[in-house]
Design brief:
Layout: E1 5-7, E2 9-13, E3 17-21, E4 34-39, E5 47-52, E6 57-63, E7 66-71, E8 76-81, E9 86-90, E10 95-99, E11 106-111, E12 120-121, H1 124-134
Antiparallel strand pairs: 1-9, 2-3, 4-11, 5-10, 5-12, 6-9, 6-11, 7-8, 7-10
The structure holds dTDP-4-keto-6-deoxyglucose.
DTDP-4-keto-6-deoxyglucose (T46) binds at residues 34, 36, 38, 47-48, 57, 59, 109, 115.
């Protein structure tokens, strides 16, 4: 299983607070074409349930916490995000579910490309076939 966890570069002092940096070639392996935020997720709601054909993303909880179930078709892992110092690098072809959002969770996502619904695989069996075809 790949290592999805990434350390986010922060500049912090007690007088002025924290500044988190995402920099292409440093801690972000792609040029960012889109960013979006997920906030105010009601208790118990789970999101995701898809994989991307090509898209790469970095996910960071700027506030609060949430968990990611990650599945590469062979192995599964659950990672918790609870600090702006920690990120998840989400490459393509990883089935992901986001869950256990805290009430105050602000999830920031940096994406390598524009929004394209055709890049989503929203059916798990289709995802497994995609993985199989990609490894041929
Ligand atoms: C992902 C995880 C981590 C847009 O119109 N533009 C956008 O940039 C995005 C991200 C979504 N949308 C639309 C598509 C849906 O009608 O917003 C609606 C909600 O999207 P979705 O149900 O895909 O949201 P999540 O939270 O399940 O997944 C999101 C991203 O869509 C996805 O790429 O990897 O966060």
């Amino acid at each position: 299983m790949k290592n999805f966890e990434r350390e986010i570069k922060v500049r912090e002092d007690t007088k002025r607070g924290l500044l988190a940096v995402f920099e292409y070639g440093e801690n972000c392996p792609f040029e960012v074409k889109r960013t979006y935020c997920i906030i105010d997720v009601p208790e118990g709601v789970e999101r995701g349930f898809h994989a991307h054909k090509h898209l790469e993303q970095i996910c960071v909880c700027l506030k609060g916490s949430c968990e990611f179930d990650l599945d590469d078709g062979k192995q599964k892992v659950t990672l918790r995000l609870d600090s702006p110092r920690k990120g998840i690098y989400l490459p393509n072809a990883i089935w992901h579910v986001m869950k256990n959002f805290s009430k105050d969770c602000v999830l920031l996502v940096l994406a390598s490309d524009h929004y394209d619904e055709n890049d989503y695989i929203r059916d798990y069996d289709e995802f497994l076939n995609f993985i199989k075809d990609a490894s041929k």
